[in-house]
Design goal:
The complex is a heterodimer of chains A (about 290) and B (about 280). Chain A contains 13 helices and 2 strands; from the N terminus they run H-E-E-H-H-H-H-H-H-H-H-H-H-H-H. Chain A has about 290 residues and is mainly α. Chain A has one domain: MetI-like fold (Orthogonal Bundle), CATH 1.10.3720. Chain A has a two-stranded antiparallel sheet. Chain B has about 280 residues and is mainly α. Chain B has a domain of about 180 residues: Orthogonal Bundle (MetI-like fold). The longest helix of chain B has about 35 residues. The chains are: A mainly alpha (about 290), B mainly alpha (about 280). At the A-B interface, helix 1, helix 3, helix 4, helix 5 and helix 9 of A face helix 1, helix 3, helix 4, helix 5 and helix 6 of B.
């Protein structure tokens, strides 16, 4: 009896940090913004339950357009990242051997250990009107005057794709690693062309990695703040910026909380959809990464 | 597929150039004797690191209180985050790997959850919740509880909310590989529970503990999204960099970035070495 009570106490003590962490830093804060998002100001310092914040989102074009734009561009960025990363991952996993392989993977990892702000600073120095590319174009005579490559959608997409690459390459390379060379060989022996083998054997095998990579890249992109704001300037228009503006600049917390819930919903919906369409589970997907 | 075509090889080369181009320009323009981090090249200088501003017009990193304070603030956040992440992560790993109870799958799922919440949402939810709690406590206790208002302690909590998941996963992965007969042998030889933990289990876990600590340190140093929402008047390094970048910074920001790259590179290589020792 005493032993049983003692083991119960041990279990409770072991669980206490997890309960405090998940309760105080995750669950209750989310309950708080959910409640906050349904409160409306009816008089100064007086709030009541209502759907006003969500209605405001649908009636104010700036808000829902920014939301739709963020969702659409994030999907585009994810697709571009996948296409760019696939040949690299295939090379690392299937072609490169020994030290070259280790080195290529390490070189991929290095830039991503460095802060996002540093990487964005690099792109700003390259792309801006007085920057390196503009200067190079002028000195070889391809441009007569300074070229502004910053503050447009192209720059935002470039920065976001750059930021997502690693998170695509690693799960892809992991998934491709386990593909048996004999299976690929058999595909060729049976008369398959390069394209057929890629489409019918390699890509289906890499599917868990593709799903994991796409989900992670999408989540990181949709939730990004610094890259679209710094590389897009006034044209950045990212939804996280709206959340920041409501919370910090305009001090309209209920509105900001509603935006936060919408972003969380978007992010979760796409993750769920991705898993559902491909029949994967979240646990195995996170393990891939 | 084993003989890569020349286009493929060229693509790989171009890719790595693309990967390193931004970092290279950041590093190079840290040494340019110009007021702005942009071409043309006006000569090599170390002023952006050590200068007091008399030569190039603005102070270098080591003479500028903005940078020194923000680096200090980053350490004030990163060290508690790393220590708490290792300590609590070890307990969590124990729950995941050793404890048996109903609802364990649920707890394990919940522990993964912070990773799929956007950092900005994590930030605002903690900001809103702690604001309510603090208001309630202040009314009740009739005192000021400023440490729960936006500021470095709240940043520590915000970063811990998701870094703890990573630390837990790293430590749990190591604990899973532990051969429990080693512990049993120690018990049979008459060792107490505390002694077994200290002399057998923890030494085995130590590479993962160091690794988790270093990863937590790095993630804390680099976190921007969650920190931005919870920061008060004392800005950690990424927040200070962001502010400077919006205003148009002097090459001192390149110098800070280069120092950061070297520091991160150092920590990452220690991590790579410890995880190699693990295998």
């Amino acid at each position: 009896m005493i032993a049983k009570q003692a083991s119960r106490l041990t279990l409770f003590l072991l669980l206490a940090p997890a309960i405090l962490w998940l309760g105080l830093l995750i669950v209750l804060p989310h309950v708080e913004i959910l409640v906050l998002s349904f409160s409306e100001r009816v008089a100064p310092r007086v709030y009541a339950f209502g759907f006003g914040n969500y209605l405001e989102f649908f009636t104010e074009p700036l808000y829902w357009r920014t939301f739709a734009r963020t969702a659409f561009m994030s999907i585009l960025v994810t697709a571009l990242t996948l296409v760019l990363a696939f040949p690299i991952a295939l090379y690392i996993a299937r072609v490169a051997q020994g030290r070259l392989k280790a080195m290529l993977l390490l070189l991929c990892l290095l830039p991503f250990w460095v802060s996002e702000l540093v990487r964005t600073l690099g792109w700003m120095i390259l792309l801006r009107e007085t920057g390196v590319i503009s200067y190079a174009l002028r000195s070889i005579g391809l441009a007569g005057q300074p070229v502004e490559l910053l503050y447009n959608d192209g720059a935002v997409i470039l920065g976001l794709v750059y930021g997502g690459l690693l998170f695509m390459i690693v799960p892809l390379a992991n998934a491709l690693e386990s593909l048996e060379p004999a299976v690929v060989e058999a595909g060729y022996d049976l008369g398959g062309s390069r394209w057929t083998v890629l489409r019918r054997i390699v890509i289906p095998h890499a599917m868990p990695g593709i799903v994991a990579g796409c989900i992670i890249v999408f989540m990181l992109t949709v939730g990004n703040f610094a890259t679209p704001v710094l590389l897009g300037g006034k044209n950045g228009l990212w939804f996280t910026e709206q959340i920041y503006a409501q919370f910090i600049t305009r001090f309209n917390w209920p509105q900001g909380a509603a935006f936060g819930m919408l972003l969380l919903l978007l992010s979760s919906a796409i993750v769920w959809l991705g898993l559902r369409l491909t029949g994967q589970s979240l646990g195995t997907t996170l393990k891939q990464a | 597929m084993n003989r890569p075509s020349i286009t493929w090889k060229l693509y790989i080369a171009a890719f790595y150039l693309f990967l390193f181009a931004p970092l290279l320009v950041v590093a190079i323009f840290a040494f340019n004797a110009s007021l702005f981090p942009s071409p043309p090249w006006r000569g090599f200088t170390l002023e952006w690191f050590t200068g007091s501003g008399t030569v190039v017009g603005k102070p270098g990193v080591l003479a500028d209180p903005i940078w020194l304070e923000s680096i200090g603030n980053s350490f004030k956040v990163a060290i508690p985050v790393a220590l708490l992440a290792v300590l609590l992560g070890t307990v969590n790993a124990w729950v995941l790997e050793r404890a048996e109870f109903r609802g364990k799958t649920f707890v394990a799922m919940m522990m993964l959850w912070p990773l799929v919440i956007p950092g900005v949402v994590l930030g605002i939810s903690i900001l809103a919740f702690f604001s309510r709690v603090t208001n309630g406590l202040e009314d009740w206790l009739q005192t000021d509880l400023d440490f729960l208002r936006p500021g470095l302690p709240l940043v520590v909590l915000g970063q811990l909310s998701f870094i703890l998941t990573i630390a837990t996963l790293i430590i749990a992965a190591r604990l899973r590989k532990f051969d429990r007969s080693l512990e049993e042998a120690a018990f049979d030889l008459g060792a107490s529970r505390a002694r077994v933990l200290r002399t057998v289990t923890l030494p085995f876990l130590s590479p993962a503990l160091i690794g988790a600590g270093l990863v937590a340190l790095l993630m804390s140093f680099e976190n921007f999204n969650t920190t931005l929402m919870l920061v008060g008047s004392e800005a950690p390094l990424p927040i200070a960099m962001y502010g400077q970048m919006r205003e148009g910074a002097s090459p001192a920001i390149n110098a800070v970035s280069l120092l950061l790259m070297l520091g991160v590179g150092g920590i990452a290589s220690v991590f790579a070495l410890t995880s190699k020792a693990e295998r």
